[in-house]
Amino acid sequence: MTNTVLPKWKRLDNAAKIFPSSSSAVDSKVFRLACELEELIDPEILQSALDKTMEKFPFYQSVMKRGIFWYYLEECDIKPVVELEKKAPCRPIYDNNRKNLLFRVLYFKKRISVEMYHVLTDGTGALEFLCMLVYYYIVEKYKDDFKDAIPSLNDNSTLFQKEDDSFRKYYKKPENSSNESKLKAYHIKGERLFDNNIAIIEGRMSLSKLLECSRGMKVTLTELMTAIFIQSIQKEMSERDQKKPIVITIPVNLRSYFPSDSARNFFTTISTSYNFSKQENDLDKIIIHIRESFQKELLEEKIRQKMNTLSALEHSVPIRMLPLIIKDTILKIATLFEERSSTASFSNIGKVSMPKEMEKYIRLFDAFTSPNILQACACSFRDNYVLSFATPFKNHNIECNFFRHLSKIGIEAESTTSGAGE
To answer: Can you list the domains of the chain with their CATH numbers?
Structure first.
């Protein structure tokens, strides 16, 4: 009699549950983090680095399957293989008719890119994966430079900590349900790129100059960028459109509020809005409003309540008992309602840290996501602050407005465009 070893499986975390139902060719729910090195990539060394990285992230070697009540992740024996980048960025990864991993590792010239299906992880988890991949690549590529001592990456979390579902760990049944009314936001309109393609408009700036500017205005860098983003959108609105508020959605890393080393999803979102039919079109006034909005939305108690309210749906017995086919329909409708309340999104991945001995081999990091609406994503490394706009639209006026606004306050950006579009 032979013993059959059943593959390990995991529930999707709370944030991941909505992505399978809301994924489509238009909105793949795939995002990308990339690292640009100073020299051309060696694919054989990159593959070796990926093999070592997977030892630290074995649960990423999983496929997604449909259950009766929920989707779930099942470990598999598919080995991830690095690919030369030839196709459009952030194309769909999950396919119900195919058994495949939920991420891909790409290389092109001097760039290493990791694309993740959002079911698997968030920006923080993906960045941890990419940093470890780059670390192993540099250690092997420049091994002669590290004969005396190999730099440490300061990764002290265990496999159990990386696999932790922190939503479940910190869930507490909310005492009062949160019924915040959602604004019907202004939506950017325009001709979309052919065949669900996306365009990437990227600006590279001095982080030290940006911080000097934001400190002079007594706001955080994210608050300043959000305010400029709002004013850039307003410039393209008609008088009639300005009756609706511009609403910017901002992901919030819950690891800043709850101790967690999880490499899975652990985030929520906040929104900030500005109505030009009721409020002044002045950058200083917008900045003050955004700063006050952030201070209210980022209170620990409010973040905790938001997380618990969203998690409560997963713990609801009536919801849990619904078959997956009905849950899919409900979650698709919920996503459509959520999209009505957002104009654009801005995500700040934050500052990327690598061992000091390795910094000379690395030029920059950047990030962007597959957009159904206009999305901006920022990250920094050393003094390089990179802001990437991902858009499904042919018209790039909003992005151009943004960089013009920065120039007016003394910040010059080196801008590049890639992907499809004009």
So the answer is: 9-149 (3.30.559.10), 181-419 (3.30.559.30)
